[in-house]
Amino acid sequence: VRLVESGGGLVQPGGSLRLSCTISEFTDRNYAMSWYRQAPGKERELVAGIGSIGGNTYYADSVKGRFTISRGNAKNTVYLQMNSLRSEDTAVYYCRVGSLDSWGQGTQVIVSS
Q: How is the chain classified by DSSP, letter by letter?
């Protein structure tokens, strides 16, 4: 599986970003997707997830009500809409397919004034 994340950048507190993840070289038709993040000096943590069918979603308490995970129409893309960003959201964001231990290069999000 190949994962390519994009959409990160520098944003002021209270701002928004939309991250994208494109999946390729993966033949399964139905799979859950998730977004993780890793801040400097911290372990990687689960931020949000979306089920393979039906779109059931999960959010970490720290992002609930501010972040929204969704799938693209082509099914091989997953998005993370991030609103009301805070400095503590600063991290490298990664997407993940199911429970596969395969990661992309991530996309850097910096929330700072």
A: -EEEEE--EEE-TT--EEEEEEEES---SS--EEEEEE-TTS--EEEEEE-SSTT-EEE-TTTTTTEEEEE-TTSSEEEEEE-S--GGG-EEEEEEETT-------EEEEE--
Q: Greater confidence, 56 or 75?
A: 56
> How many other CB atoms are found less than 10 A from the CB of residue 36?
20
The pLDDT tens digits of the residues spanning 37-71 come to: 999 999 999 999 999 876 799 999 999 999 999 99
pLDDT tens per residue, range 3-33: 999 999 999 999 999 999 999 888 777 789 9
- For the chain, the average pLDDT equals 93
Task: State how far the alpha carbon of 47 is from the alpha carbons of 11, 15, 74, 81, in Å.
Answer: 19, 18, 23, 12
